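[job 4471] stage=fold_predict status=RUNNING
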Amino acid sequence: MKVHWLAILIVLGAALFAPAVSAKIIEEKDGYIVSTIDEDTRFADFARLSVSTIAQGQRDYYSTYVPSGKTSFSHYLSWGSVANSLALTIESPSGILGTYYDSSDGSTDGRINLRITRAGGLASGTWPSSVYGHRVSGTETYSYQTSLS
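[job 4471] inference complete, writing structure tokens
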């Protein structure tokens, strides 16, 4: 009977610590790896939060200073209506990494959730980003969060 309970504890422990969805690499450019953020960690430790509205063709600009020694930069853009489409452009200090759309992470769900990493660490300096109203009827409220680790 003790072995049975031990097996149950091992299975429960594995379920608690296993990620619900594994990260998927979206792009590799200039040594950077852009991947999706696991469902379990998506809301954890996001430092900066902006809430705004955007219209068709409008672009809102943001920037984050990345100090030396950081290895990961996470971005989470979320909006209410999947009928509307926003785009997120992310730049490193040396140039544009990419423009990402709702479907870039493999799911059309009104969210763009990305993590950027690079072996040896991220370039320090200002990292600009922008949210673009790619296909918006009226106005769309969105939230944009970033986090460094």
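[job 4471] summary: Strands lie at 25-29, 32-36, 48-55, 59-66, 72-79, 85-92, 95-101, 111-118, 125-135, 139-148.
[job 4471] exit 0
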